[in-house]
Each structure stands twice: as C-alpha cells, then as structure tokens.
Design goal:
Elements lengths: L6 E3 L5 E3 L7 E7 L8 H12 L4 E7 L11 H12 L18 H9 L15 E4 L5 E5 L9 H9 L1
Parallel strand pairs: 3-4
Antiparallel strand pairs: 1-2, 3-5, 5-6
C-alpha cells in the first residue's frame, strides 16, 4: 500500500488521485488559517518554490478539528492562503484528520508514521508527513517543526 492509492477532493472540488504525484517527494500537511502555526504557510511556500522543480510537491489539507481554527469554506480558505502567503502549492478540500470521520489518507499516514510515544493520533494543525518518491511514508513532523528545518530530509529524498 502507498499514498498513491488514495483520492481527495481539491479545494476547487475536483476529485484527484494521489497517483498523479507518483515519482515526487510529497510533504502532506493538515493546515488551518487561524492557528498560531499559520505563518508556516510562508515557509511551506518557500520550500515549494525552492524544490518543486526538483521533484517536491506540498499538499495542504485544511482541517477545522482543532479549536475550530479553519472555519471558512474552501473559497475563503483558498483566498486567505493566496492573499496572505502567496500559496501556489496544491490545496485540497477541508478534511477531518482524526476520529471516525478522518479522511482515509490521514488514517493511513497516522498509522504509517506514529507520533510521539507511538501515538497514531494527529494532535494539532500543521502536522507534516514526508513521503518518498515511491509513495512510502518516511516520517512525521510535529506542528512545532519549522518547514525550513526539513530541508535536509527533503533534499535526501529528492536525491534518491
């Protein structure tokens, strides 16, 4: 099994198979527009601009499960991300990332890359999952991890 077996709706409402990203390094992030970590959009966009031509894709999945920090609809979220942070990486429709209604992709990510002390639960916005070019989940990074601190990991996966 790999992340390529999943589908998700884009922020524009189109169904997209993650198999379209086969051969790319993926950084999958659950995002929120009104969170203390929201400024990470700027660093994510900088990573995208620096490494996209080398094979990195960043996939943003808005989530409103943590303190209702992304209450807007898809259009509001997209406008916020573009206007405030110049986000040009792919954004997807709002999803749940924990609980019974969690999107199957996030159920898979959480199972493949457990968090602190083996916890499978995603505990907050801006949890980041790094996926290699074969669709294997390589690592989970906490919300406190700055995207720019992931450069070495990204570079090593691109070089494989």
């Amino acid at each position: 099994m790999s992340v390529y077996e999943f589908k998700a709706k884009t922020i524009m409402g189109e169904e997209k198979s993650l198999s379209e990203y086969e051969g790319k390094v993926l950084l999958i992030v659950n995002t929120a527009s009104k969170c203390g970590f929201t400024p990470q959009f700027k660093e994510l966009q900088a990573l995208y601009e620096e490494y996209n031509d080398s094979g990195l894709e960043i996939l943003g999945f808005p989530c409103n499960q943590f303190a209702s920090q992304d209450p807007g609809n898809e259009q509001e979220i997209q406008e916020f991300c573009q206007l405030n942070y110049g986000v040009s990486f792919p954004m997807f429709a709002k999803v749940d990332v924990k609980g019974d209604q969690a999107h199957p992709l996030f159920q898979y990510l959480a199972k493949e890359a457990p968090g602190l002390l083996g916890s499978k639960a995603i505990k907050w916005n801006f949890t980041k999952f790094l996926v290699d070019t074969r669709g294997n989940v390589v690592s989970r990074h906490s919300p406190q991890t700055s995207p720019k601190d992931m450069k070495k990991d990204i570079e090593s996966l691109i070089a494989q």
